[in-house]
Model the fold of this input.
Amino acid sequence: MSYRICVVCMGNICRSPMAEVVLRKTLDDHGLGDLVTVDSAGTGGWHEGGPMDTRAAQMLSDHGYDGSEHRARQFLSDWYDRVDLVLAMDAHNLGALRRLAPEGADVRLFRSFDPAAPEGAEVPDPYYGEREGFAEVLEMVEAASKGLAEHLVTTLK
Done:
């Protein structure tokens, strides 16, 4: 049985799908691809069924990642039954996820796994900004993904 992670942002078209794609690749690179399942969702369902934001997909593609298969979904409370770790991109979504969570659920900020990030660090929403915001998100996601992979190497193996 694999360890299951779900990365969550607001609409599941920018931050969380970028994190899903990067985290999956990072886990593969650390030899954990067969042990960990990664998924993503949004706290809202506005974009459900739609593809990743084109700017997010392009940023991933420009750096060797493939997000073309992504389709947006909404996180539902019954998912806690099948997810081991839920990672929120920011405090707003963290609060929404914790309100849905049963006692004992592991819900954290995604950047809590980046050893260089300050406590409570968030991944900002690039949706209303320019390309630079997506580049910044990618850098943050790569750093936190590496930290999470290193954490899981010691805890899962």
User: Anything to note?
Assistant: The first strand starts at residue 3 and ends at 9. The mean pLDDT is 97. The two ends are 13 Å apart (CA to CA). Residues 131-156 form the longest helix (26 residues).
